[in-house]
Specification:
Elements lengths: L1 H45 L1 E4 L4 E4 L2 H12 L1 H33 L5 H13 L2 H24 L10 H29 L3 H9 L5 H11 L1 H13 L8 H5 L10 H12 L3 H32 L5
């Protein structure tokens, strides 16, 4: 009897293991092919020159050298770097604290918190192209018409005016990027022990004190994960600029994420064009990698503790 029980448990364990292997095989294979292999091939491209006539590769450092020179001397790429950093700092600096405060409001189940949870997450569900079309028509067509009706003044659309174009794009990104952050932060806040919160209330910690001394330390690992992920992808984020402007004129709002996307499209599958793009990406990796790990170390070292 005991032997039969052991055999049944062994078969069940083998079945569980087989199920686990079958379920994990496909995503692991996708990760190996579409991430590891693609990244490794991109690094190789940085050191290769492709001859279209002979269809062969030769090893060279020319693209790596020229990429560094372009990034430091080309006015267009210098401006691209500035715009990338500006978008990242403003987006992260505004989105993160507002996301935390809204999440705290929702987690406390205050007035219309359920509505805000759904409303803020809607832009993440709707197709980005549709959202851009709706937003673009609103700020360029509907908003000027509303101003004209209310004040009698004729104004240009926010996307059509140089002085307001950047802020219009930034506001859109803040709007559509809000939902995921709020959802994740509020879920993390809802997992905080009620006993801890009640004990804090007995000690007189309410409102902002509760948020600062109880809530923030409790969800700090989630916050660090979001910040590190954003920093690691800083040079790949195009902030929906391609959806707004396509491959044409970007009006000085080009980031490195948009640059890579447009240049790759322009290459149109030509291997000869990939080497320069890959070399620039390699240099940006040398910047992002130590920066990401350095910030991660500082956030974990200097951040608040749940204790």
């Amino acid at each position: 009897m005991a032997n039969n029980t052991v055999k049944k448990r062994t078969r069940a364990a083998k079945g569980d293991m087989l199920f686990y292997v079958l379920m994990m095989a496909w995503p692991i294979l996708q990760f190996c092919v579409f991430y590891i292999a693609v990244k490794f091939n991109s690094i190789l491209y940085s050191f290769q020159r492709y001859d279209k006539l002979s269809r062969t590769f030769t090893w060279t450092l020319d693209y790596v050298k020229s990429a560094l020179k372009m990034m430091t001397t080309s006015p267009a790429l210098v401006e691209t770097m500035k715009m990338t950093l500006l978008f990242f700092l403003l987006f992260t600096g505004i989105n993160t604290p507002l996301g935390l405060l809204f999440s705290y409001y929702i987690s406390k189940k205050q007035f219309a918190s359920g509505f805000f949870r759904v409303f803020l997450f809607l832009p993440s569900i709707i197709c980005s192209v549709i959202m851009v079309l709706i937003y673009g028509n609103f700020v360029d067509v509907a908003l000027p018409e509303i101003v004209r009706v209310l004040t009698g003044k004729t104004v240009s659309g926010l996307m059509s005016t140089k002085s307001t174009r950047f802020f219009a794009v930034m506001f859109y990104n803040l709007l559509v990027g809000f939902g995921v952050n709020v959802l994740m932060y509020s879920n993390a806040m809802s997992a905080i022990s009620e006993e801890v919160v009640e004990a804090a209330h007995l000690d007189g910690a309410t409102g902002l004190k509760e948020f600062w001394f109880i809530t923030l330390p409790s969800i700090y690992p989630t916050l660090v994960t979001f910040l590190i992920t954003a920093l690691a992808g800083m040079f790949l984020n195009q902030y929906n600029l391609y959806s707004f402007f396509g491959s044409g004129e970007h009006f000085g709002l080009q980031t490195y994420g948009l640059y890579f996307y447009v240049q790759t499209l322009a290459a149109d599958g030509s291997r000869a064009e990939y080497s320069q793009i890959s070399a620039i990406g390699l240099w940006l990796t040398f910047i992002a990698l130590p920066l990401t790990y350095g910030v991660k170390f500082l956030l974990e070292k200097l951040g608040p503790s749940e204790d």
